[in-house]
Amino acid sequence: MTDQHSSLSNLDLETPEKPFLDANELVINMGPQHPATHGVLRVILRLDGEKVLGLECVIGYLHRGVEKIGEHRTYTMFNPYVDRMDYVAAVSNGLGYCETVEKLLNVEAPPRAQHVRVILTELNRIASHQLWLGTHALDIGAITPLFYTFRDREEILKIYEKYCGARLTTHAFRIGGLQYETYTGFEKEVKNFLDFFRPKIDEYEELLTTNRIWVERTKNVGTISAQDCIALGVTGPVLRASGVKWDLRKAQPYANYKNFDFEIPIGQNGDTYDRYLVRMAEMRQSVRIIEQAVGALPEGPIMAKVPKVMKPAAGEVYHSIEAPKGELGYFIVSDGSTQPYRVRVRPPSFVNLQALDVMCRGQLVADVIAVIGTLDIVLGEVDR
Amino acid sequence: MVAKFRGTYGSGITPLTYAGQNYMAVDRSLIPEILQVLRNEERFDYCVDITAVHYPKREKQFDVVWVLYSFARNERIRVTTQIVDGESLPSAVPIWPAANWLEREVYDMFGIKFDGHPDMKRILLPEGWKGHPLRKDYGILQQDNEWVQINLGIESGQ
Amino acid sequence: MGQILDYIKSYLSSSQTPGAAGNMFWVLVYILLVFAGLSVAVIAMNWLERKILAHMQVRLGPMRVGPHGLMQPIADAIKLLLKEDIMPAEADGLIFWVAPFVVVLAAFTTFVVVPFGPTHAITDMNIGILFMLGVSSLSVLGIVMAGWASNSHYPLIGALRSSAQMVSYEVAMGLAVVSAILMTSLNAEGTGTLSMIGIVQAQLAQGEWFIFKFFPLGLIAFFIFAVAMVAETNRAPFDLAEAESELTAGFHTEYSGFRWSLFFLAEYSAMIAVSSIAVTLWLGGWLRPFPNFLNNSTWDLVFSLFPGVTFLLFAAMCFYNALRMPKHPLFRVQTIGLAGFGVVLGLIGLVLFIPAVSVRIQDIFWFSAKVAGFMYLYIWYRGTFPRYRFDQLMRMGWKVLLPMGLGVLILTASVALLQQKLWHQ
Is A38 a domain residue? Predict the structure, then answer.
């Protein structure tokens, strides 16, 4: 990437100076029970009229101590827990965890398993983006896209249900590969879904992309520059919408993404509208990846040789994948026993949420809603 | 790069490799300088993660880990250092604003303070909670019963 | 006794509204009729909105209470009445109590002058349209009271938003109305009118609805009004006052049960009221299509069949859906209910074919049909548009609609003046 991203960002995170005896300032508490905070996020807003002077996020309402639980479970037992973090992209979480442990064990999943993993993960990316689009549009007041996206997301969940019995917290992958062979007709159903889904993206776009109100509500709202994104550690579609062509699937390929041909959609302005466009384009790219993967599904085993009782040698590994929300990293320390000594999850939502303050300064209350939506946070992952 | 560092800083830096990933163990005293150099000279402009690991049996109880990434080099590096319980570290917020919440989380979970952090308080657990849950001596079922009783009006959260 | 009967009968031969004729008995009857009709309309609107919106959003909407959820609004009403009435401890009791009534009164009082037909109005005021605009803007007062008395941040912001919004859109609305009123003066005497009935009669006399007058001036004025009226009633895409995702429910966040349902009632009545203004001013009020062009007795007969046919169509829809009901015994009651409802609608339709009835009911039918069109638009907007932001809303009101309104007013006046000049030559 170019040098401009490397220069120091001049972010001013200090609270703005308070004018003497300002009676106009209003402190509003938004959440944890609020229709637009996507769960239990609590935002304390300081307003001048409707203008946001500053805000503070209060998080932790959904804290379940996942990292602590990880230290008390074996490597296999902890696998289902990771699904509960970003529950709308459970498959991605599982992929990251399994790959990290595989790195520790120094095994690699067989090609067929890798392919199925890519298919399911990309389907999950579509599902996650669909859920984002529906709720984001709902926040901005367009109530109809929500039902369209949920209707189509259902088809993905049906594929999951048929594959592993669960729809949301799938626990689809195992360390070393897959537990289940694909069901009969899996490839055909996935292909059918792709044919069904392609025109649906146009349908979503028809309602929003050129809608005057939508454009006015999202253009130049919550703008964040590439420098600020990098300084704040923001990743995923938010970073790409600011113009940084960076995707872990390309930058540091994992699974077998290097075998597939796809593009990284980027935006220019880093505003809410660009993030919307980037995510829409990402759905199309996911369709492309799945198409290639399902067309060339190799035969072969689905499970690598993994010991029944996993005892990785003492050591530590950090591995990250491109989850729908950004860089999802796992840092696992092994002490040679059956349980991880320390599991650290680097949650994209948590780090991205930090940028909320920067993105909302000087905007209106209604924009805070739009920005929370466009950051695409999942509180299960923020709080873990 | 690490070799260059070794030339400059001597034995304070130990290059390590595990599972194909490079990382370096750095002496506590070198941390402020190393982080600065990594950011400004080696262009590790993206602070991916800051976390810690607790080893209660060691004299220096905590490993603090910075995971850094450079967009220019497409390279990731980990810096670890060992500190004793109660020792504080310089905050990385002036270098990477992203460190803000990450350091707060480390403080929340391990009780490691960062000097110069703009807002050093708990992040996931409520204010006033006693104990730092990711320390090894903190039981998995343990909780701050006093806080629960006062604030939630119930005997115990279990 | 006989005197009273005479008093009652005396109105029947009158060609005036009861209020104008000064007959208090019929005024009361009309008030009751309008009130009842309005309540039924709000209930129907509630059901229709949920059903239509649901079908736009690929779902079914209410299906459980009654066949196709027909009883759902009634179930909701009962639920709301039985709900606990919560008043926040910090609220200003009196104002909190009064606010919903102010809103409801403002919404309902406007119907005093709404002309459902040449004689079918409670009264005919010579300042009818002014009265209507004035009274309907009183609801701002109730909204501000509600927001203030709740003593909570969200309602306060919601109330501020909606009052600012209503006040600013009233300006554009007023200008559009003035340009329509100007058009009423385009007769030989050059005298216009503010009376709601007079406005419709002027359209009849001039032989065209004001929406087509001085094309496209009338259309633009109508468009301005149609946008402003959505903003005026705080409906999507201008529903910032109760923007669910931002302010939970806006000014009525703290209200529950019966009080809340009053706000609901007021909102829908206000929608009907402003739609009535639009229909009266631009769409020829109670006039049937082409009253001057197709005015022989054959066409009169054809158009008088419309009300009956409409109801028969509704009935047919009920029967069709009753036939499509699952044959399971569990659905028997629902099937019978739906068929029964169809029978009722069909009977009403048949009654409407009686010439004596259809002549009297025609005007009301055409008026309601036009208003229903607007109601559908309201639902359609809600299904398709995202919500405007507050500053954008204000910009649109002051920088787009207001200059447009002024321009249309000036142009209309100039064209009218020219025509008047030609007239007198």
Answer: no
